Amino acid sequence: MVNDLTRQLQLCGHHCEVFYFDDIVELNFTCKVTQISFLKPIHFGNFDIIHSHLLRPDLYCLLYKKQIKTAGCKLICTLHTAIYQDLEFTHGRIKSRLAIPMWELALRNMDHVVFLNHTASKSFRHLDLVSSSVIPNGRDLPVHHADLAPSDLELLEQLKQKYLLTGAVSILDQRKGFEQVIELLLIQPNYAFVVVGDGPHRSVLTRLIRENQLNDRFIMLGERTEGFRYIPYFDLFLMPSRSEGLPLAVLEAMALKVPLVLSAIPELESLLSPHQAAFFELDDPSSFSQACVHASANAYNLSSNAYAHYEQFFTLKGMADTYVNLYLTFLSA
Fold this sequence. Notes:
6-stranded parallel beta sheet, 4-stranded parallel beta sheet, Rossmann fold
C-alpha cells in the first residue's frame, strides 16, 4: 500500500521519501528509500507530513514526537490491522499484551489516525483519538508484468483440468485460517486449492495436508513476485481469515473479476455485500462448502458486482486523492 501510495503521490508532483528498519528488500520504490535505526531520529524538518504504518514506525514517532512537533510536521498514521486480535495471532498472548498499551499510547499521540474501514474505526472509539477518518486501501494492477514460470503455469493448468481450482495469495499465518481449507477439500473431492505465499504457519499446514492425504489438492507454491498474476487462474478466491484489515489481495481479485468466498467477519462483511461475495461462518466446514458452491454457481453476477464496487471505491487514484486532501487539510489548519 505504501509503495502504491508513494508512486501515485509522485505522479501528482509531491515529494516522498520512505524510511524502513529491517534489512529486507521486497519492493522497488520510485522514491528515495533509506534504512534507519530506531534509536536515531531522521531530519523531520525536511517534511510537511510524517505518515507512519504499523507498530514500530508508530512507536518511533511517539519516541520523537517532540522533535517532530518542533520541526512543524503533522503526524498521521494508517492503522492496517485489528491490533487486539492480530498481535496475539502473530506474536502470542504475552507479547501482544505488552505491545498493545504502547501502541495505544502511540495512536493517542497522533495528529490523525486513518482506519481502513468503519468496523475498525468503531473498535478504537475508547481511545479518544485526537482525530480520525476512514480511507479504504486502493489497488491498481500493473498493465505490464512477467509471465508465470512455465512450471507453475503447467501445474495450474493440470489442476484446472481435473478440479475446480480455488486459491489465495497470502502470508501463511494462524490469522489467515487456511487450516479450514483442509475440511473444505475433504467435503469437496472435486476441489483443489493453491496458495501463493509463505509464512510461519506453513509447517502446521504441511502436517495437516499429509495427515489428510491432500498433497495433490492442497498446494503451497511459496513466495512469488507479483502474486496477483496467479489470481486469474483461480475459479474461486478464498479468504478464510479470522481477522483482517483491508486485504489488498481481495481488491486484486475484485479487479480481476474472480468470485470471492470470504469468512463472515465484520471487517470483510463491511467491505462487500452478499451480492458481491459469498460468505461463510468460521470453523463451519458445511457453511464454507455451501458458500463455495454458491459462488461457483453465481460466479458471473458476484464477480461483476464486486468489480463495479471496486471501480467505485477501491482504485489507487481514489485512495491517493483522499490522502492528499487529508494532508492539505492539516497543512492549511
